């Protein structure tokens, strides 16, 4: 872990914490990594940070290595022939660069929000259509059910009436046949005598 702490590519150049310690690491389009909190605090440049090597305040920013350095680091062999800026100026430059790189993201975010709003509206419209269509289907089936109940009652009534008529005709025919049988019986008895 000591080697990781010393590797500048694994450290936030402002907080100088190993990436493993980040709760929310952020990688910019320029491939530099920072703590999300450090990016948010850029409006107040980190003037109270201390160099881990020389225990001096970090007042400069090495443009070559893209990291804050102390005055002793500037004069050291490690940063020989490097270009430096005051950390406040460098922070402003990086903030401006970050703002420029965030513009497309902000536009895309707004587009995404607009699409989301549109999709929510479409989903609500679909729900309303489903609700209305469901109501129409239920109403139509109630009408159809009522029609079928009435049709069943009407046909059952017609069937009963037809049954009564046929039964009555059958009774009338049986009565007529019975009368004929009686008449024939009387005639046959009268001929015997």
Helix content: 55-70%
CATH class of the domain at 2-110 equals Alpha Beta
Structure summary, number of beta strands: 5
Estimated structural class: mainly alpha
Shape-level CATH architecture of the domain at 2-110: 2-Layer Sandwich
Termini separation (Å)? 142 Å
CATH superfamily of the domain at 2-110: Classic Zinc Finger
Ranges where pLDDT stays below 50 over 5 or more residues in a row are 1-6, 16-20
Largest sheet: 3 strands, antiparallel
Radius of gyration: 49 Å
Strand order of the largest sheet: 4-3-5
**Overall mean confidence score, pLDDT:** 82
Query: What's the overall geometry?
Result: rod-shaped
The portion of residues forming beta strands comes to 5-15%
InterPro entries: TRIM/RBCC, Znf_B-box, Znf_RING_CS
Coiled coil: 142-187
GO molecular function, one term: zinc ion binding
Domain B box-type: 46-87
What does this structure look like?
The protein is mostly helical and 193 residues long. It has a domain at 2-110: 2-Layer Sandwich (Double Stranded RNA Binding Domain), CATH 3.30.160.60. It has four helices and five strands, in the order αββαββαβα. The chain has helices at 2-6, 36-40, 71-74, 87-192, and strands at residues 25-27, 33-35, 60-62, 67-69, 84-86. The strands form two sheets. A three-stranded antiparallel beta sheet has the order 4-3-5. A hairpin with a 5-residue loop joins strand 1 (25-27) and strand 2 (33-35). It is rod-shaped. This is B box-type domain-containing protein. Residues 142-187 form a coiled coil. It comes from Neogobius melanostomus (round goby). InterPro entries: TRIM/RBCC (IPR050143), Znf_B-box (IPR000315), Znf_RING_CS (IPR017907). Residues 46-87 form the B box-type domain.
